[in-house]
Amino acid sequence: MSLGRGCRGASVRTIVNTTPTQQVDDPAPARGRALVLGGGGSTGNAWLIGVIGGLLDAGVDVTGADLVIGTSAGATTAAQICSANPAELLAATLAAAPPPPKGPVRPDSGGRASNAPVVNHLERTNAIIAAASDAADMRWRMGAAALELAAADGSAQARWRAVVAARLPSQHWPQRELLVTAVDAASGEGVVFDRHSGVDLADAVTASCSSGAAYAIGDNRYIDGGFRRNENADLAGGYARVIVLSPFGGRTRHPLNWGMQLATQVDELRAAGSRVETVFPDLSFEQVFGANAMDVSLRAPAARAGHDQGSALADQLRGFWGPDAPS
């Protein structure tokens, strides 16, 4: 990553969007552990909290990672677990009553609001992906569309920031290595925020979650970090052990030859000498993601499913993640 142009008065690193890392003859990653949290909407955030809480209950504390990387909903989770106890976050998620539906209620929805806005968003972005010639062109098109949406509703930014900020236990960057990803809406370049960026934590997380209208920080506008890569696990390069939690199960909506998928990111990490474990939602619970990702009534079930998975995976991950595990 190189130092790039960010918002006025801030130091924001630009992530170069390149082809996969080449195989090296003598990989020698630095000692350390990295936790990567991918995007996945409101249900994805709940599932991530559940998995982390389940692991912790079973004696595996992944919040002690030397590096935490968060993208979109994963950026929210990353900021949450860096400043609050996962058990408390899980309890709050399970106890929270969903707000009354704001959208039209389908006759067969059991009282839940229609997921039409998410479906419309998926259709709109799928059309942009289909029209793009490659990943760089896709990011530019996504940014241009997001800038148009921002111009159409100037008050949306303040509302969205308030929503995201309310989810964070602390408004301050933790004194540890936390990376929050986004994409520059004008250039299409990937961007990473950290505590040295001169950007408020709430602004960084809001930018990473901005899958609709572009979000302004200073003179720049940003969109969802998942438009670079859904998990951005390649940013953990150089770490000996990496755990990736992917609410979308490593899937991608992009052509495979673009190299956006998690499998390619994992190959890059392993080629450079990292040991990598990935965790995906159980297939039986996939219906809470995708078009249902913003259905807040599914947050508690997603968190419970994540907790069950975390508890079940603890023995498998204990030797991999524990302080005495080989690097």
Structure described in brief:
The protein has 327 residues and is α/β, with parallel strands linked by helices.
General description of the model:
This protein has 327 residues and is an alpha/beta fold. It is built from nine helices and ten strands. The protein has helices at residues 41-57, 73-81, 86-95, 116-131, 135-152, 156-166, 201-208, 262-271, 299-321, and strands at 2-4, 12-15, 30-37, 67-70, 177-184, 190-193, 215-217, 220-224, 239-245, 275-279. Strands 1, 2, 3, 4, 5, 6, 7, 8, 9 and 10 form a ten-stranded mixed sheet that branches. The protein starts with a strand and ends in a 6-residue tail after the last helix.
Question: Helix count?
Answer: 9
Largest sheet: 10 strands, mixed
Beta-strand level of the residues, as a percent range?
Answer: 15-25%
Helix content class: 25-40%
- Derived from helix and strand composition plus strand pairing, the structural class reads alpha/beta
Apparent shape = globular
- The low-confidence runs, each spanning 5 or more residues with pLDDT under 50, are 1-10, 18-26, 103-114
Total beta-strand segments: 10
Overall mean pLDDT stands at: 85
List the secondary-structure elements in sequence, H or E. Answer: EEEHEHHHHHEEHEEEHEH
Gyration radius (Cα, Å) is: 19 Å
